[in-house]
Amino acid sequence: MTDVTRILNAIGRGDAKATDELLPLVYEELRFLAAQKLSHEPPGRTLQATALVHEAYIRLVGDEAPGWTSRGHFFKAAAEAMRRILIDSARRRKSKKRGGDRQKIEVDDAIACLREACSPDDLLALDEALARLAETDPVKAEVVKLRYFAGLTVEQTAEVLGVSATTAKLHWAYARAWLLREIG
Amino acid sequence: MVQYEENPEETIFKVAIQRQDRSERQAYVLEACGDDRRLLAGVEALLQYHDSTSFLDVPVFDADVGPDEPMVAGGPGTVIGRYKLLERIGEGGMAVVYMAEQAPSTRSALFGPASTGVLSDSEGTIRRKVALKIIKLGMDTRQVIARFEAERQALAMMDHPSIAKVLDAGATETGRPYFVMELVQGVSITEYCDKNSLSTKDRLGLFLAVCNAVQHAHQKGIIHRDLKPSNVMVTHHDGRPVPKVIDFGIAKATNQKLTEKTLFTRYAHIIGTPAYMSPEQAELSDLDIDTRTDIYSLGVLLYELLTGTTPFSEEELRKAGYIEMQRVIREQEPARPSTKLSTLGKTLTDIAKCRNSTPDLLRKAVRGDLDWIVMKSLEKDRARRYETASGLAEDVRRHLEHEPVLAGPPRAWYRTKKFVRRHAMLAVSLVAVGIALLGGLVSSMAMYLRAERARAETEAVTAFLTNDLLASVYPERAKGQEVTVRYLLETAATNLDGKFSGSPLVEAQVRQTLGSTYARMGDHEAAQPHLERVLEIRRERLGQEHPATLASLDRLGMLFCNWGRYGQAEPLLVETLAARRRILGERHHDTLESMAHLAWQYMCEARFEEGMTLAAEALEAGRSILTEDDPILLRSKGILATGYVTTMRHAEAISLAREGYEISRRALADEHEITLFLANVLSWALEGDGQLDAATELAARTVELARRIVGEEHSVTAWAMSNLGAACLAQGRYDEAEPFLVRSFEVAMKLGGPDHTGTILFGLRLARLYHAQERFAEHEELIVGLVEASRRTHGENHPQTGYIKYWLRIRAERLEALVQQQRDAGDHAAAELTAARARPIREAWQGSSSERSPSASGPSP
């Protein structure tokens, strides 16, 4: 049994502290994978958040398939980890001050050469708005993280959050419009 | 959170975005906000952002790695190619859909001039509104567009009121692929049915229209690959609900090959709609998706229309994990719809209410016919599904009209059980051999026997296989059991590899039996590898000229011939005949067989003189050494008579065919393959001679018999149906003729492809029907296709090509005369349309290839 499987099982049993253990593991794995992918994939290839997250899942949990509920915990952690990776990178790129860690540099370089959906400014503005949304409405903030940072579909997002697909869709539509209005 | 849910801005926003109609939405927002200007401004701003695209539409990492450029086109107002985006009308997992406006000057450039449908409904200065779908996820745009281009011709041929036309494809400035489609404003079929509480009967009515649309596409060679409720919209036309299938051609264009490597990347897509995915799609091999994949998805759709749920729920499949999901789709039998209804508990009441029914009545309505129809569509083995969408529709129609349906209770077991009951003795040995093949017992037995008293007994084993077991599938010996035996065949075939490594000749004999059996069942593709392997083994072990080697050469040749692969068949059959003449002499049974086979090959290639000469030769030589009821003689008579019909010598044809037919009936039985063949020749000759009543009667009997013995999808049945249709056509009974002519053409197309002699012949009869019915558009489309096929198969100067060209000329000249009339009447717009319609017909008639050599009608030997 892998560490992550053990943690997921603990979360499944209601051990709230285990959640704190999960995030750093997932974070490191995702950053490692992103760096590896981005530096090895030839240009023109596609890198997808969802692929990354699923691959991390297979690597960390394996094929033991512990059911969707615990996978849901994993995806929430992964979405948060992806958010941190991207926001950290955007910050560093913006300040042009890079950390000394070689892996981080690779990630930043790679992310910088991504034909990205948005500029570091957009990303940072989004993150601030997202933080405001999370204060008033944590569920919708979670929807945004899962959809935007982990690349899950509406249906998958609904599964993770245990709501109907229709609800998830409406939440996403509202959160999306709300954030865009906030950013202006 | 509660407080947040009560936030009026959110509530109004959420209600508003669910209103499809713009003005309705606007009215709602104004009313809901009342006097609150701030609230109104807030909601309107949200809606504006909702309607526009933004960087949030694509997950942050789902960007292509490459040079800098923005991801997604801007919102309304943006111009993409020839289209101006008007508003966003939908968003799915992988695409955003806009309503867009098409610049008027470009409409005709999209199509060849033949597609009058497109031209006629966008008049002059009216700016046509279309739906423009931009694919969001990272894909190789060039490949997507190349794949679309490859299908564009075929897509443009689709013209059906229930198919939304796909008009165009291209790439946005940011390199995303996009598709342009006919704009369909409606809701998904399931939503429509539920909202309007349609009864089961009305649902079936809509479903029939969907089947017809899918059938139309299949006839044009287009497979949808992604049929699901959200791709079947319902709109109102003249107050009537009309289903519209959207996204034809798009799944194929955007479908990258699924491999282990791309599995993760594709995960999200696969997870999109696993509930509608056929077992062969779940394989991920992507090797051979065919029209029956759509039949499966139609089955799921029907299941959902009846029960409100899919056979496997999305939730169930997704929870299961990827590997398990594949396994379920490939292996697990879904619950029958009526059983499923019983498991729904409380929700059943709601589901019944949506169908204007009660739980009990609904269960009763679904149980039986509808259960079986659905289950037949959902067969894991696509060979057991309905062969065509119209076959499925036909059964639904039969149910609606209280006729018995073709689908029966679950296949394999039911059939096997019945079979076992009827043939207790045979079944025991059958099961024994099945197990033996499975466990490799035959091989060890063969090895044992070889060590002991080898040959004689080994042959006994295979003779048993050949004569007692597998031969029971020969249509004339076992009427109607082929499904069960087919199952055993497949089991045997898949377990054959490596089992006979010590005794290749035994393997060859077993394979010869398997291959010939498949060939008899009309499954050419399954037969081919076996027969090829047999030839290989025998050549190596017995030498080139051994009679057994030559027999396998002959089998393979006839396989290709019956398959319509004349180019591959001819050298094999020529080689066999030459070798047999040399080794066995002129007056040997096998040599005569070869002559008859090669003669048939020539007839199929429309090299009538060569075929007739050879058949006459076989007949002549055969009379002295064979009895009159020998299949070779009977076959030769049929071939020669066919030749007489094609050269309009009807009296001779009738006399010869009738002679053979009577002998064959007496000696071999009515349902023997050769009797059916001769019956077809005879009814064809009678029709040609104008003896229409006799022709009709014989053809009808043959259709009935052939359907029962070899099934509808067999060349013999197709021919009989076409003959019956032709006889009805000649008597002006168009409505009776139509189903037979349509179906025979479909079957021939499916079995032999567009260039098969039979396809061309049956197609031409169908075209004549359309002409007689004044269905000119269909007529034109068909003859244009046929002339191309005939040029390829028969050559430019062949009579068959000439005959089709005659029809093209009639049509072209008629249309051109019409152009003149319209011009004289001052109706220039109409004249232009008609001229555009006439042009491809004249081109097809005159052909761009007059230099083409008459490849098929060579000199007679």
What would your notes on this structure say?
Chain A starts with a helix and ends with a helix. Chain A has nine helices and one strand. With 184 residues, chain A is mostly helical. Chain A has one domain. By secondary structure, chain B is of the alpha+beta class. Among the domains of chain B are: 50 residues, no CATH class; 128 residues, Phosphorylase Kinase, domain 1 (2-Layer Sandwich), CATH 3.30.200; 170 residues, Transferase(Phosphotransferase) domain 1 (Transferase(Phosphotransferase), domain 1), CATH 1.10.510.10; 73 residues. In chain B, 64% of the residues lie in helices and 6% in strands. Chain B is built from 40 helices and ten strands. Chain B has a six-stranded antiparallel beta sheet with strand order 2-3-4-5-7-6, covered by helices on one side. A three-stranded antiparallel beta sheet of chain B has the order 8-9-10. In chain B, strand 3 and strand 4 form a beta hairpin. Chain B is globular, with a radius of gyration of 31 Å. The C terminus of chain B is likely disordered. Chains A and B meet through strand 1, helix 3, helix 4, helix 6 and helix 7 of A and helix 2, helix 4, strand 1, helix 10 and helix 13 of B. Strand 1 of chain A pairs antiparallel with strand 1 of chain B, so a sheet runs across the interface.
